[in-house]
Every structure is written in C-alpha cells, then in structure tokens.
Specification:
The chain is of the alpha+beta class. It folds into two domains: 128 residues, no CATH class; 112 residues, Orthogonal Bundle (Arc Repressor Mutant, subunit A), CATH 1.10.10. Helices cover 56% and strands 11% of the residues. It has eleven helices and seven strands. A hairpin with a 2-residue loop joins strand 2 and strand 3. The longest helix is centred in the middle third of the chain and has 26 residues. The termini are far apart.
Length: 246
C-alpha cells in the first residue's frame, strides 16, 4: 500500500503512468512497483502479510476491493483528505521508530485499519464526484451486454463473466464491481445476471423457443442451471413465467 504526491513517472507492472496530483493507491503481495524519477514525494508503506497474523485485519483486509484495482483507478485525494492520510502514516512511522513494547504492533495495526477505512470512504466519495465518467462506463456496460445477448455470443463463448466484461471496458473486475455497487446497489455479477434475466424474459414472452434452447442461446451449458437462476431471481420457473402470458 502506498500514498504518493507524485511529480514524475511511475511504473506498475509493464505500464508507465504520469501524475501531477496527490494519489492514493494500493497493491497486493507479489505486485511490482518502481518510481522512475527522483522528484517523487510522498509516502510508501509496505506491510508484510505475516505482520497481520493473529489480528482480525488479516481476514478483513480481503474485503477492500481497491487492492485489486489498476493504478489508473487510483484515488485522487483532496488536500484535506491527504492531511488525514499523512497524519495516520506519520503516526505509524513514529511508532515504528519508537522503543518497541507489547503495545507497538497493536497501535500500528489500529492506525493501518484507520487508513483502510478512510480510503474506503474516499473511494465512495470519488465514485459520486466522478459521475459523468462513471455514467459513461455504465452506458458502455449496458451496450456491451445488450450486444452480447443479441448476437447470441453465449452460444459460442458461454455466459459473460465479470472478468470478460471488465476486460472489454478496460477496467479491473474489482473496480467495476465496487463502482456498480455504489451506483446501483448491485455487484458486477448481479448486474450481469439481471441483464441476462431481462433478456430471458423477452425471449420467453416473444418467441416459441423451448426453455432449453433459450438457456443454450444465453450461454448456459445446462438448462437446469438456467432454471435455477431464473427462479431465484423471479420466484417463477421459466415455464411458469411463459404461461403467465397465455
């Protein structure tokens, strides 16, 4: 995890990015990060996974989707937000350099949890303040899914996955899910399933295709899986839904 006010280049994986504003971004274990300029200013905080062992944070840290975001999906922080994060990181640095005692690790972990909570809050703010960009992404998502089902792509490649959709939209799966959850209350998987059910309803009510044929056309390998999903979303089986139109 790192927080940067950057004046120069940053290499993340095989890509290079330029930033002229304060950013807050997170990387998981095993990811490669390097700075390409001596003009970089800010903080870098590296936490070994073993440091969290025995603390609830070792498990709850997985709930923060931004560890799976791409660098281009970094959080742009305001001056006030930057002061909050820098204050917490300064506390961690002070504790780290102080004489270690039985409270040291507890205090560092508590400060780290606050950093993550604030980052979660700031990302929620960014999802709201960048609505024009986010709305464009949602429009592209709707167009993508509509074309997928209308072109019967499911027959060739199966059900659309979150990874596939995110890749087509050039965003990370975690970012897409968190954006949708903030904008619509649904995860990316739930959103895809809802679009699929809407398409299934149209096909059940306007065509004479069998339930099995509709299931295969939408990308299901087994009609039973389609029946189960449809009933879980509508409280009706596909046949019951079709009969309601007769």
């Amino acid at each position: 995890m790192y927080e940067e006010e950057l004046r120069g280049g940053l290499r993340y994986g095989q890509n290079r990015y330029d930033f002229d504003e304060g950013i807050l971004s997170f990387i998981g274990p095993g990811q490669l990060l390097s700075a390409e300029t001596a003009a970089t200013e800010g903080w870098v905080l590296l936490i070994h996974p073993d440091f969290l062992l025995g603390y609830p944070l070792a498990k709850t840290i997985r709930q923060y989707g931004f560890f799976g975001y791409e660098l281009t999906e970094a959080l742009f922080v305001s001056d006030k937000e930057q002061q909050v994060i820098e204050g917490l990181l300064a506390n961690i640095e002070t504790e780290y350099h102080a004489n270690l005692d039985r409270h040291s690790q507890d205090i560092i972990i508590a400060q780290l949890e606050l950093v993550l909570h604030y980052a979660d809050r700031f990302y929620s703010r960014q999802f709201l303040t960048r609505k024009p960009i986010n709305n464009d992404l949602l429009t592209r998502l709707e167009t993508l899914l509509s074309a997928y089902f209308n072109d019967e792509q499911g027959l060739r490649t199966g059900l659309p996955t979150v990874e596939y959709v995110a890749g087509e939209l050039n965003v990370s799966p975690h970012y897409l899910s968190d954006l949708l959850r903030n904008q619509t209350g649904q995860s990316a998987q739930q959103h895809i399933q809802q679009q699929l059910i809407d398409k299934a309803k149209t096909m059940l009510s306007t065509t004479t295709l069998s339930v099995g044929e509709i299931a295969y056309q939408l990308g299901f390998t087994y009609p039973q899986s389609f029946n189960k999903l449809f009933k879980s979303k509508t409280n009706q089986s596909p046949l019951q839904f079709r009969q309601s139109f007769n």
